[in-house]
Amino acid sequence: MKFLVALIFTVTLSLGGSFAALAQNETPSAEAQNAIININTATAVELQALTGIGSVKARSIVAHREKEPFSSVDDLTRVEGIGSATLERIRSKITVN
């Protein structure tokens, strides 16, 4: 029984560090949060640095631009879940160039 408890404890500690490292790699850096982001080339993680853009919307942006690149920042409203209010909130932080 002690062996089983020790084994579970060891496995839990081992995996805990892995999950923490994974979560850290998916968090946009402070530099990314202040940069102008090209919505035609940014990764989903980089797009999440924008206010109001979470992982689902970021993946939707990437999927949309793979079908048809954005020709202007206004085209972002063609992505489901991104309306004019979201666009105005992030307009100064995005580009298509």
UniProtKB/TrEMBL annotation:
UniProt cross-references to InterPro entries, sorted A to Z: Competence_ComEA_HhH, Endo/Exo/Phosphatase_dom_1, Hlx-hairpin-Hlx_DNA-bd_motif, RuvA_2-like
Protein name: Helix-hairpin-helix DNA-binding motif class 1 domain-containing protein
Secretion signal span: 1-23
GO molecular function, one term: DNA binding
Keywords assigned: Signal
Domain of life: Bacteria
Protein's GO biological process: DNA repair; protein secretion by the type II secretion system
GO cellular component: type II protein secretion system complex
PANTHER family: ENDONUCLEASE/EXONUCLEASE/PHOSPHATASE FAMILY DOMAIN-CONTAINING PROTEIN 1, ENDONUCLEASE_EXONUCLEASE_PHOSPHATASE FAMILY DOMAIN-CONTAINING PROTEIN 1
SMART domains assigned to the protein according to its UniProt record, in alphabetical order: HhH1
Domain Helix-hairpin-helix DNA-binding motif class: 45-64, 74-93
Record organism: Geoalkalibacter subterraneus
